[in-house]
Description:
By secondary structure, this protein is α+β, with helices and mostly antiparallel strands.
Amino acid sequence: xxxxxxxxxxxxxxxxxxxxxxxxxxxxxxxxxxxxxxxxxxxxxxxxxxxxxxxxxxxxxxxxxxxxxxxxxxxxxxxxxxxxxxxxxxxxxxxxxxxxxxxxxxxxxxxxxxxxxxxxxxxxxxxxxxxxxxxxxxxxxxxxxxxxxxxxxxxxxxxxxxxxxxxxxxxxxxxxxxxxxxxxxxxxxxxxxxxxxxxxxxxxxxxxxxxxxxxxxxxxxxxxxxxxxxxxxxxxxxxxxxxxxxxxxxxxxxxxxxxxxxxxxxxxxxxxxxxxxxxxxxxxxxxxxxxxxxxxxxxxxxxxxxxxxxxxxxxxxxxxxxxxxxxxxxxxxxxxxxxxxxxxxxxxxxxxxxxxxxxxxxxxxxxxxxxxxxxxxxxxxxxxxxxxxxxxxxxxxxxxxxxxxxxxxxxxxxxxxxxxxxxxxxxxxxxxxxxxxxxxxxxxxxx
Length: 447
Ligand SMILES: Cc1cc2nc3c(=O)[nH]c(=O)nc-3n(C[C@H](O)[C@H](O)[C@H](O)COP(=O)(O)OP(=O)(O)OC[C@H]3O[C@@H](n4cnc5c(N)ncnc54)[C@H](O)[C@@H]3O)c2cc1C
């Protein structure tokens, strides 16, 4: 057994050995759940292998705390904690998303209406800086700004090598009741009532079409009259339109969308009987990463998570139905549990909502995907909404820093990666991800 300390030392020495002639990105065992982009420069970058950081080090049943390495997948984590009738306070709903990726990227699920994202339930990170320093970061210690800023900065501030986070009691089964609404107004009233009373263990929903809104209200139960899982021929999101209620074993509940949230393949029942066991989001992403250069643009589905302030939902949906009109959508209420340091002061000063709705669009195939990424992004800026940076982003640098907090980002960057070995956040997520280089962008200025 290699100890955690030995793994960290190996990373530091591997890190020091690298010549850093090009920016570095991380390599781990599981597939990345960033949306594959054909020209993303990350594919050609020098790699730092953090693949062996995938162990759970402690499950403390007394204090409801877990300590684990970043490459632990949510599937492995839930399998380990449920043996003690415990679960993490946020479980990203695809089996192979890792806890490190959830913190450095994003995480949203049906407990988010109570607990926010996975990072909101973390207590401590160990971070290795680009200079090979090992920092312990908590919300209270001298590294508190680093603790807050590593979330959503896509590995551009350092490597998270260890995480300490909260666990909570769980039961063996989840009962889900599906409430159907025909207007957005009634749907919102129901969401708001559950948000205020915090009476459910889980809340999310599927907007099947304008006029068909399903709210999935989940609660832990000790017993179940029957159970279903959605690992083979059944399609979870579709079941929410047909069923009144359902029972799932707790791990099956968490990973009910693992075959694709609203984008399940194969679509034909016969093909699902034959191949359904073999396919998952994980295999689809692996395929898309390998063949990204030859897959036609229109065959790469538009995938985008939008965080809409609750009060702006009507305006957004009215616009969306007219300009995009793609259904179903996944709807996940998300509580803003903290005035996040990574959001700009300007943005926060205008923010009145305590609840956001993550409206997730998965699997839209259109002739010109970039057009749709572009118009969605513009609308979000107009209504004071945020998108996760996992897909194609068109923000100009100026626009970007009106949403993300440049001052806090630069403060931490100067401390953890002064030579910009991991790339800077705007560059990584908006420029390099589209295959553009700084020189390319500056060229028109010199012409
Ligand atoms: C089709 C699809 C469906 C999705 N469904 C869901 C869902 O149901 N629920 C949900 O919450 N999210 C969902 N996501 C979003 C996903 O959770 C995020 O993209 C998440 O950041 C992916 O984590 P990962 O483990 O795959 O890490 P990666 O994609 O490998 O990494 C994400 C980013 O974090 C960085 N990073 C990874 N590990 C570390 C580390 N140890 N230290 C520092 N930086 C690190 C990487 O460099 C990268 O920039 C979905 C995404 C897609 C494409």
